[in-house]
């Protein structure tokens, strides 16, 4: 998609700090990290959000998950743990409408259950 930031990163027309790439999936450092490790994993195919993928994309999204696990391991997070986040739509704060996982780790993350913090 011509005006999509992450498509441009996937094509290489906008630079990124890549940590993984194969035919279908790309991962790179978030430009504004929210944790000591903050990586983004994208399918190279343009899928706007979690709301937009079809059955034909199931294998591709599986590939993004498989890559995310490997990337987290290579970032040293396998034992300490990490969070895999997808923002979908306005209330989530999604700002880039090309599907992506955030991998967050490298410190104790705020618990999603406030009573456990
Ligand atoms: P969202 O809120 O859409 O789930 O997250 C988009 C993420 O993309 C944000 O964490 C933001 O910091 C990151 N981001 C935005 N523009 C760029 C960019 O040009 N390069 C990289 N590497 N990350 C970006
Ligand atoms: Zn795109």
Structure description:
By secondary structure, the chain is α+β, with helices and mostly antiparallel strands. It has a single domain (5-116), classed as HIT family, subunit A. It has two helices and five strands. Strands 1-2-3-5-4 form a five-stranded antiparallel β-sheet, covered by helices on one side. The radius of gyration is 14 Å and the shape is globular. The chain starts with a helix and ends in a 12-residue tail after the last strand. The model has no long low-confidence stretch (mean pLDDT 96).
As a whole number of angstroms, the C-alpha radius of gyration is: 14 Å
**How many domain units?**
1
CATH fold annotation: HIT family, subunit A
Instruction: List the total number of helices.
Output: 2
Bound ligands, each once: guanosine-5'-monophosphate, zinc ion
Strand content: 15-25%
Name of the CATH homologous superfamily: HIT-like
The count of β-strands is 5
Structural class call reads alpha+beta
Contiguous uncertain segments of 5+ residues: none
CATH architecture designation = 2-Layer Sandwich
End-to-end distance: 41 Å
Output mean pLDDT. Answer: 96
The level 1 CATH classification is Alpha Beta
**Biggest sheet: strands, sense, closure?**
5 strands, antiparallel
Shape: globular
How would you write the strand order of the largest sheet?
1-2-3-5-4
Could you spell the SSE succession in H and E letters? HEEEHEE
Percent of residues in helical segments? 10-25%
């Amino acid at each position: 998609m011509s005006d999509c930031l992450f498509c441009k990163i996937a094509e290489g027309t906008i630079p990124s700090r890549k940590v993984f790439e194969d035919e279908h999936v790309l991962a790179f450092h978030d430009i504004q990290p929210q944790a000591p490790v903050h990586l983004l994993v994208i399918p190279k195919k343009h899928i706007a959000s979690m709301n937009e993928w079809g059955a034909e994309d199931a294998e591709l999204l599986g590939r993004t998950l498989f890559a995310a696990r490997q990337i987290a391991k290579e970032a040293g997070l396998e034992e300490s743990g990490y969070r895999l986040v997808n923002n979908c739509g306005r209330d989530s704060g999604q700002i880039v409408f090309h599907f992506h996982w955030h991998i967050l780790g490298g410190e104790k993350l705020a618990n999603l259950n406030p009573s456990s913090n």
